[in-house]
Specification:
Blueprint lengths: L1 E6 L3 H12 L5 E4 L11 E3 L5 E3 L7 E2 L2 H8 L4 E3 L4 E5 L2 E5 L3 H8 L5 H11 L9 H9 L1 H16 L8 H4 L17 E5 L3 H9 L4 E4 L4 H4 L5 E6 L3 H4 L9 E11 L9 E3 L8 E4 H5 L6 E9 L6 E2 L3 H15 L4 E3 L11 H18 L6 H10 L1
Helix pairs in contact: 1-13, 5-6
The protein binds flavin-adenine dinucleotide and uridine-5'-diphosphate.
């Protein structure tokens, strides 16, 4: 008899497995239909010995000290500040748009204050800001929107930015300084030995059993368990009762070149050319030294693994119907990017899993005595 059956060995499932096993002293079975742990953050050494991310580039960044400290129990880190260039009109320009972008694109030499008025002159008045188009045109105006955002977004989502929630393009800010980094979070680092090694450490506990290559539906009736934690797609769990939730997929094309480096930054975005959105060169992210280099091209697709929830009002309405069903199940928790249909980064999923664990502690795990607490403290 397992106390918890966890479906999905990505961040959501693995954090909960680790917390329940270590702190809750619960017996956990974690199942994944893939042949590996780590979910979409899985990485491995390819046939040339280069560390690559199977499901596209994963760069860790967070403002949460709690999340960073938690993961630091299972990995050492390599400092890494991600930089991205956008290929626009034959030039490579920093994205997010900043002072360097504007000066290079327009061939001018203005300062931060001048950039503020430069953008004010171009920005369109939009109220309220609702869509992904609104967010950008209200900050930088239509020309930069069309060059940097419109084409990329249409390729990535097969929707016009005006059909997507503001939150999508709001992920990419505008800066009036010269900060060329993609993220400005307090903690920006890559697991020193890769994500998979970190997951192996998290799941290495005598209370945790792992079952791979297994769709939970094949075994759910054979396994004795008390509670279920589900981290797969929520609509799949409920047999698509209200219809399918839209997810966007990607096809990844990997290419290994017989040279040490290919491009000057980790990622280069191609908003207006080609069918792919971006090319990432892994060695920038991992810091690996190797005489060859591996790239990944991301081709957005409608069908395939569900990688991205699609943030727009009608999808949110549909998700709310599934969330209402989910909330009626007292023995089942839904956690993670697919199970809560949220465009979450890794750190947000870790934070959500830690919060869920705290809730579980209050209900499932009996009140601890001071002695218990002392023992748990020593176990971490
Ligand atoms: P997943 O990692 O998707 O784990 C869910 C697991 O459940 C999967 O392994 C799946 O196989 C399993 N599963 C599903 N259904 C079943 C079933 N029926 N039976 C058994 N198992 C099942 N975040 C960042 O912070 N930084 C980045 O740079 C970044 N880049 C990204 C790039 C791409 C291309 C993508 C797609 C995502 C990126 N993310 C990034 C987001 C990140 O991948 C997620 O936030 C995180 O991995 C989600 O973890 P999860 O556990 O919720 O889901
Ligand atoms: N985006 C864009 N141009 C860019 C970068 C991003 O239009 O050069 C938009 C696009 O809609 C994208 C979204 O902003 O899907 C979020 O970008 P992010 O880099 O965060 O995407 P992710 O890494 O999650 O795929």
């Amino acid at each position: 008899m397992y106390d918890y059956l966890i479906v999905g060995a990505g961040f959501a499932g693995s954090v909960l497995a680790e917390r329940l096993a270590t702190v809750g002293n619960k017996r956990v079975l974690i199942i994944d239909k893939r042949n590996h742990i780590g979910g979409n953050a899985y990485d491995y050494y390819n046939e040339d010995g280069i560390l690559i991310h199977k499901y596209g580039p994963h760069i860790f960044h967070t403002n949460s000290e709690e999340v960073f400290n938690y993961l630091s129990r299972y990995t050492a880190w390599r400092n890494y500040q991600h930089k991205v260039l956008a290929h626009v009109d034959g030039q490579l320009l920093p994205i997010p748009i900043n002072l360097n972008t504007i000066n290079k694109y327009y061939g001018i030499n203005i300062n931060s204050l001048q950039m503020e008025s430069f953008l004010e002159e171009r920005a369109e008045k939009v109220y309220p800001v609702k869509t992904s188009e609104d967010v950008v045109v209200s900050k930088v105006g239509r020309e930069l929107y069309e060059k940097f955002f419109k084409g990329y977004t249409r390729k990535q989502w097969a929707l016009d930015p005006s059909q997507l929630d503001a939150s999508v393009t709001a992920r990419v800010p505008t800066r009036t300084n010269k900060d060329d980094r993609y993220f400005t979070d307090t903690f920006q680092a890559m697991p020193l030995h890769g994500y998979t090694k970190m997951f192996e450490k998290m799941l290495s506990h005598s209370n945790i059993k792992i079952m791979l290559n297994t769709n939970y539906q094949e075994v759910i009736n054979e396994i004795a368990y008390k509670k279920l934690i589900f981290t797969g797609p929520v609509d799949e769990y409920f047999d698509y009762r209200y219809g399918k939730l839209p997810y966007r997929s990607l096809r990844f094309k990997f290419e290994t070149l017989d040279k040490e480096t290919f491009q000057e930054t980790g990622t280069i975005n191609y908003p207006n050319d080609y069918a792919f959105t971006r090319i990432t060169e892994f060695k920038h992210l991992t810091g690996q030294k190797h005489e060859k280099t591996t790239l990944v091209y991301e081709f957005p697709e409608a069908a395939g693994d569900p990688y991205y929830p699609v943030p727009r009002p009608e999808n949110d309405q549909l998700y709310k119907k599934y969330a209402a069903l989910a909330s009626q199940l007292s023995n089942t928790y839904f956690v993670g990017r697919l199970a809560t249909y949220k465009y979450y980064n890794m750190d947000q999923v870790v934070a959500q899993a830690l919060t869920t664990f705290k809730k579980i502690m209050q209900t499932d795990i009996p009140k601890l005595t001071t002695d218990d607490e002392r023992i748990l403290e020593s176990r971490g």
